[in-house]
Amino acid sequence: MKNTFFLMMLGIGAVCADVQASSLYDVTPRVGLLESMPLKWSFSVNAGYDDNVNAVAKGSASYESSSFVGFVLGSSYSNQDARTQLTYNARLGGDVYTRNVRGRSGQVVGNSSVSMQLTHAFDSTLRYTMNNSVAYTPDPNYADGISSSRRQGNTFTFSTAHTVGKSLDPRWAMNTNVSYSGILYSESEYKDDNREYVNVGESLSFKASERTSYIANLSGQFVMRQEGYNNQNIYTTVGVQHALSPLSNVSLNVGTQVKLQEGFGNKLYPTLSGGYNRVVTDSTSVNFYFSYNNESVGTYYAGRNYGSNSTWRLGVACNQRLTHVLSLNYGASAMFSDYTMGESGLGDHKETTYNLNVGLSWRLDRAWSVGISYAYTNADLGGFAAPYHRNVYSVSTTYTF
User: Given the DSSP bridges, would you call strands 212-225 and 84-97 parallel, antiparallel or unpaired?
Assistant: First the structure.
């Protein structure tokens, strides 16, 4: 009880929703039952090779490859009882590159994060969920915009999200959602384009059967940007969630997005998202998501703004336990962005980015494990910067206690 109370207070006091996948984007929640786990600690040491640390075209003056070494101190905890579910993960670490990164040698890149989720049922009709996270990590080189100076480097990301769900009767329920999140860029490596997001929403769900629910949602988003224009978005969506089995589900949401942006007026766009998740066997799970939105990120170039950035995001991930000691994870993602409504003669612009990652982990005993991983990026930045490829290889060893 003391450990549970302490970690609950830690999570409530943290300034932080899950920074991941995708960071500020919602995807279908994973399926399968979580298990309680006592507080655990781990320490990892890794080494690797990055053949394009500055994410530029081969032949560029700043093209550089480098080896790197790093460490991560981590902790995790999970308590899953009938009324309260609490999950906590933390990692503190960084990587040191031996060759020039952005014109400097011996560059240290942060790799630290804290995340937690708390769900509490006050009674059979009222439930509260909180997701918090904060991270100081490299901004993925395919994310958040077209600026060539913003494809890597330390980035501070935070989010806190709160949901209150109330069952009106056995079939109808309401959910109230509030969240606040942001991206703070390292001034030495990025243009001054910090962003903050405030979201408020209300949804009404109808349970048509034991397996199928329909959802109607109305939400507002306020985007505050240090560079470029602030804007507001009003989303109206309807969706369906269907459980194909106790260990698999699909979801689909369609609707409209009204975008109110300084200097560009009011525009109407479609919005679409969905996902598929399945625990295939006791040892294999698959997760897929897609989304289409007119995003409020990365919409300026050389001091001039784009009024529209319509983006598709697609991703799939698979986790597979090959034997009782050997595990494999792999995945791929793609992003297709279409920038239009440029000001001051700024022409239309398209970007495509593909990512692939593979990892293999071998558990030597209860405490020790080793792993190898590979990540590949292929980015076409549409003429603002030359296309580039990037390959990152690494090996690691982890001690859990």
Answer: unpaired
- Segment 32-82, tens digit of pLDDT: 445 677 889 999 999 999 998 877 888 888 788 889 999 999 999 998 887
Which pLDDT belongs to residue 255? 98
Q: Which residues pair with 196 in a beta bridge?
A: 182, 224
Split at pLDDT 50, 70, 90, the class of 7 is very low
